[in-house]
Amino acid sequence: MNELIEFISNNLQIIYIVILSIFVGVEIIKSIPAVLHTPLMSGANALSGVVIVGAILVMLHSNPTDYVALVLGFIAVVLGVLNVVGGFAVTNRMLDMFKKKK
Amino acid sequence: MSIILSIIYLIATVTFIVGLKKLGHPDTAKSGNLIAAGGMGLAIVGTIFVHDLEVPTLIYVLIGVAILVGSIIGGLIAVKVEMTKMPELVSLFNGFGGASAALIGIVEFGNADIKAASASIVSTILSAIIIGAITFSGSLIAWGKLNGSVKSVIKIPQYNIVNNLFIIAIVALGAYVVVGNIDSQILLYLLLVGGLVYGILFVLPIGGADMPVVISLLNSLTGIAAAITGVLYNNMVMLVGGILVGSAGIILTVAMCKAMNRTLASVIFGSFTASGSVEGVNKTLGSIKSTTASDSAIMMNYASNVIIVPGYGLAVAQAQHVIHELEELLTDKGVNVKYAIHPVAGRMPGHMNVLLAESNVEYNMLVEMDDINPQFNNADVVLVVGANDVVNPAAHNDPSSPIYGMPILDVENAKHIIVNKRSMKAGYAGIENELFYNSKTAMLFGDAKATLTDLVAELKNM
Description:
By secondary structure, chain A is mainly alpha-helical. Chain A is 77% helix and 0% strand. Chain A folds into two domains: 1-31; 35-102. Chain A: The transhydrogenation between NADH and NADP is coupled to respiration and ATP hydrolysis and functions as a proton pump across the membrane.
């Protein structure tokens, strides 16, 4: 019990952010026309590529002689960029098609 | 962390929220996507350059090369791929994000002093690895299933129980490592492999039409994995970005389930068990009537209102351009043509809209289910192309049917119905469709693209 209280008091800020973010996420998605579900999912997918920031941090903090960390970090950055660039590019391409014909 | 970087992250976070919000409206969607992408770029550049660490040039070079390689490959795939392959592409990219999170977790497990670390740090690292691994292998299976390279839908008895025991075992092992502060590479890799295997077990038994729901769910899981990694680095942009994707993904998943009148649990654990009853039932439904392209063309030529119902079969046959040609021909002849779009037509909600938009179909010709249903009464001809379960009247009038209660397009109210299908094979739900036996229905058998091309040729000759 004491550990739980300690955990909560140490991470209060994070807990607040998580809860508020959950509500923001739910509210902005709530009333989306079905037409946009696929592009939205694709856009959200691109956003989940934010994990790349962590991959870059791994590389910045790693010791140049720690080859295992470097290789894993390198692969993590490549995969993260694939997720980000591919995700946004595909979403953009999908949305290009929604332009109304003149 | 420098205050400048914190401000950059703050700006990026705001662009994510604004971007997602704008993605929800047809007029602003494009700018929303660009805003979010800009914010992401800002966060990446800031992370690389704004810090007070002493970083050797080699590392910068490696990061630069990694970003270049990823951008080129990702950009090329995104530009080259066909629009019908969109869902599996989203799944593939999503899997990469998951893998990235798992790799970060592995490196951090090596870096951290596990023996002395607090339980929250160790559990954060382990959850990033496990969730990342599950989304990676699960997304790859989903990708394989959608492009047809993974076909099996294995169903061993008590499959769900085995699956659930498996995930419980993984969590228990993880808890053991956390509580005991055990710094063991073997257990780490055991957890990683466990996550990978669970991802496969989780997605493998799920049927084709439910794939979009699964992809959406996995997408949401990747967001959670990113958020967990954010906690590890106390990094706000990862935390908020990840949670946003996580919660938005869950809402989207539920919306997709609702459109199919299914619960998330029934998608994951499977509830369509009616496949055994397909044989025999058709005897009581009477006989079907088949028609030819020229007869169908004549019928549509002299109609004043035609509604086209595109479905999965149209997407598979890549017939979105031909159908647009057909619709233009009919419009030129003075026929009033509309498309009826079921929320889950195609392979994903909204997928049909993207496909038809690709072939330049006008946005206002696509009518959503609730708006088009009252108009079927006035339709002279309804042309159903490769759709089945979404037009099955059993959803209205057969309480014993597994799709009973699912919202459908009321095509049976039209004066004439032409159904283009490759064969009499049942749709995804594995049930008969009495619509095909309706006296107003004529079946036009053949591949969607070939048949529609014939129709266009016939119409041109009239």
